[in-house]
């Protein structure tokens, strides 16, 4: 079974195997990565985390779990520019440094193994966690509690004061949506580190996961442009045009399509 097939097989399980699926993404980029062995080795981390946890009801252990992971050295990667290693889970486990989403995926797996209720939240610009039923979110990088005003401040720091906090920013994210976000992160990280072929692997996965938007097709079109594949670029630009509601973007896409050679048709 190839990594992409194994990835989707994880999503088809009930419940979906979120963490294992993320490991298969890493295996797509590095043939030496063995997800099943990493899952076995994670038992040692689980024991380390468990030994330092307080005796509290399970629904009060979300923040202690994240603080315990921080005590063990797990933290947000502050390297500039950020590298793909900040989002590839095998590398994050080795380095104990990663993007908030990668930190969150490890925390969710630890929570699952320790029977601690916890879910992911695809908050704009910074992945967050929640213990169901609580009135706050948790930063996966250290465990800080975020109440609504904290979330507004975080949103403003990321995007400026014009973007208002909305209810859907705080919704629980399904596994497929979390993995699509991880794939988008990797697409951008590989591209910014001058690895267009690796970025293309991630761009294709984003689209295969479904519910892709105009920006996703446009991102893959730009990769095909860089790789000199005009027919594939045209295909994605046409899909971006169909999905776009922005009249200015639609005009630019139409102009860009006009500069591409027409697709050849064989009768």
UniProtKB/TrEMBL annotation:
Residues 39-183 form the Protein SirB1 N-terminal domain. Pfam families: TPR_9, Transglut_core2. InterPro entries: SirB1_N. PANTHER family: F-BOX ONLY PROTEIN 21 (PTHR31350:SF21), SI:DKEY-261L7.2 (PTHR31350). Belongs to the UPF0162 family. This is Protein SirB1 N-terminal domain-containing protein.
